[in-house]
Specification:
Oligomer: homodimer
CATH class of chain A: Alpha Beta
Strand content of chain A: 5-15%
Largest sheet of chain A: 6 strands, parallel
Distance between the termini of chain A: 9 Å
Helix content of chain A: 25-40%
Number of strands of chain A: 6
Order of helices and strands of chain A: EHEHHEHEHHEEH
CATH architecture of chain A: 3-Layer(aba) Sandwich
CATH superfamily of chain A: Flavodoxin domain
Largest interface: A-B, 49 and 49 residues
Chain lengths: 213, 213
């Protein structure tokens, strides 16, 4: 299987980095092909601007949606977007790993989605390509994330509510919207206050989850 | 009333820009004091890195949550974060206006939240300051956004589901989490395919919403 691993943590000595290394080793062990987008290390630019489009169709007024639809026909995206699009096209499975920031992805990863999964690429409202006819039909996606809060806080009836419900704005409105199959999220709760033992157990749990893909 | 208007659109000739201008004029008409954070115009950096902290307490390993908690005691945040924090402290009401990007804020605005509404500033898990004891008690917040999709698609039973439910990850898990009162969102659906007449009506509807604050 071809796996694109999209990763967002700043610190190579972090628990998130250990999760990422664990996953990459397990994917290799199973003989999967892997490409990595290590967003902070790449200094990935998450801000969608007119510079994203190298051949504007409406130079007088910037309409990002319109320009993206045009650029998916002509390839007139900035090189950093095109490079990531090639990885997405190549991949059977996309794994997004990140520490949760305010019940969502860190901005650097949200901006990867904003810029790379552009209108016309993963979906196209003009040709009615979404959900069952989404352009990424056949691909799958997984969210793998850590939280500071405990599981009870992030469950139905807890103070925050069910984190999986909150993240349907990603799993449903982005992944399923583009035709992808959503595999269960992998979550490590209370990652900022773990003992070494629990850390090791969580890494082992992630290793098995990845080996079982 | 003191209003902080946080705005994210790239194009001064856009409908979003017209909404923003309408709101600013209506706020002025009512005698409110206003500060504007026009994120693209400011070239706001949405990426949280170790440069956000000018006096690291753990220089050997970057733990953003830990550094933020320390920096709220010492003021050791980067100047762009401090400047935005001062606006937030000053404000009674925060209005976030943006075009919806994948059922959430554009990355530039998500990164404003990631970096400015830092742990220790709007909430503090160590002192149990959240929700009823959130540090922004007394302030209010509003989301004002445009969507490409029609209202039916973004309603319960529609293809995407209820947009207000999806945005509870912001209204509940950020605003209420920090103790703010959430006022009803202002939404313009199908903003990319509006007639001039509907555009004018929507601007008028927004003007009255702002006048009635």
């Amino acid at each position: 299987m071809k796996v694109l691993y999209i990763y967002a943590h700043q610190e190579p000595k972090s628990f998130n980095a250990a999760l990422k290394e664990t996953a990459l080793a397990a994917l290799k062990e199973k003989g999967h092909e892997v490409k990595l987008s290590d967003l902070y290390a790449m200094n990935f630019n998450p801000v969608l601007t007119e510079k994203d489009f190298t051949d504007r169709k409406k130079p007088d007024i910037f309409k990002p949606f319109f320009e993206a639809i045009q650029a998916t026909k002509t390839g007139a995206f900035a090189p950093d977007i095109l490079a990531e699009m090639e990885k997405v096209k190549w991949a059977d499975l996309l794994i997004f790993q990140f520490p949760i920031y305010f019940t969502s992805m860190p901005a650097i990863m949200k901006g990867w989605i904003d810029r790379v999964l552009a209108p016309g690429f993963g979906f196209n409202p003009i040709t009615n390509s979404a959900y069952d006819t989404g352009l990424f039909k056949g691909k799958s996606a997984i969210l793998a994330f850590t939280t500071g809060s405990p599981k009870e806080t992030y469950s139905e009836g807890g103070a925050h509510g069910d984190v999986h419900k909150h993240l349907e704005s990603i799993t449903h409105c982005i992944f399923e919207f583009m035709g992808m199959e959503v595999l269960p999220s992998f979550v490590v709760y209370e990652a900022s206050s773990m003992t070494k033992e629990r850390g090791a157990e969580e890494l082992e749990r992630y290793r098995h989850r990845i080996l079982d893909l």
